[in-house]
Design the sequence.
């Protein structure tokens, strides 16, 4: 039984890789760079996107794919930004609820005019375990950790902090009210993902938001997508 | 392929139910009430346990089973409390990392002297999706939500907020610094789990901790476990 289960899981991961490659080919054809935005629930991904995309990213036509277990709260919030936003709910079946996979993203692609985009940001389901195991055809992965979650998270969820090209430390405005030492966090992070880039932000005060916007603006160029 | 995967998952859930019942029988035999403590990563479960169990629960011999993807940080913290604490790591295999299941809990039981306990608190892996689907043989489930995560979480993760007998709203001390309206949260919660009991706490200021301790003290009596 156990062996059968493992094989089925391996088949599912193989299938995911194949579909992720198909997504990647579509993104390349359309010249779209794709970022997979991951975090625990409530780390502030949507509020950060509002802060970054409110003024827009100059010269980069951006769209968002919103992944949620249920509801369209986040997509509704981003709709005010007047950019293409597509909601994707994962509550259809067991095992698919806790993360986006390549096939779910693929199912949403017909709703997006890829030719009209330079950058697609995919906001994943809030979860510090499962999303790390499923590539979706993205160019880069961002892991958002809020200071309210505690400085120990890289040691407790190592795969997620390893499976990203950028770590955003969000809710800096709460730093003085919580027990979170940025140096200690960086020290723990270095143990699981040495030298990964870190940007500290507060979506509320705006601190670090320009830096994050600049990082996102650079993704299409870094990945060779047309801008 | 899809049908095979669904069947395997159903088999896995069936197996989980069977093992959860075996756990339940062992807990009953030893007269132990069991609480499954769930939340998103960083909601403050361990700090709450420190606050509740530091002074102890009068007349209730309490032990803790610590579930984490990796490391023993939480168990190390609780070791100072001089109560039985067993660490359980879930990073052994794919698909098992994101939650505790009945079999993982069962594997830890030999390390616990159940006869010496009235109440066993199982701290689950931080995750707002997967733990809700796997019973472990517990009497009651507590869902901890931090005010820093935002008031919209019941609508975004409905199964988790439904699969519990108590919702703890933690980090009350941050309430004035975040955009979180307790009435709004309660309103959203009522949409997915009407009339579920709510206790608001701050592990730092101690607010609500006595109420939570009293609730936990009542679990053995409510479930008929010997005290």
Sequence:
């Amino acid at each position: 039984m156990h062996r059968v289960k493992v094989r089925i899981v391996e088949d599912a991961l193989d299938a995911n890789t194949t579909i992720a490659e198909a997504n990647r080919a579509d993104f390349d054809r359309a010249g779209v760079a794709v970022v997979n935005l991951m975090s625990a629930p409530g780390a502030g991904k949507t509020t950060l996107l509002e802060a970054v995309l409110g003024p827009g990213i100059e010269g980069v036509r951006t769209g968002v794919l919103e992944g949620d277990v249920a509801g369209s709260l986040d997509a509704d919030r981003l709709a005010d930004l007047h950019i293409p936003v597509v909601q994707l709910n994962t509550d259809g079946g067991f095992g698919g609820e806790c993360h986006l996979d390549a096939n779910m993203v693929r199912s949403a692609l017909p709703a997006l005019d890829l030719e009209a985009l330079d950058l697609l940001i995919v906001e994943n389901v809030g979860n510090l375990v499962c999303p790390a195991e499923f590539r979706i055809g993205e160019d880069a992965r961002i892991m958002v950790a809020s200071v309210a979650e505690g400085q120990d998270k890289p040691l407790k969820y190592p795969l997620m902090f390893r499976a990203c090209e950028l770590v955003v430390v969000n809710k800096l405005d709460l730093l003085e009210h919580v027990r979170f030492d940025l140096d200690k966090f960086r020290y723990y992070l270095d143990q699981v993902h040495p030298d990964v880039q870190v940007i500290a932000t507060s979506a509320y005060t705006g601190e670090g938001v320009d830096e994050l916007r600049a990082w996102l603006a650079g993704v299409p160029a870094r990945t060779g997508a047309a801008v």
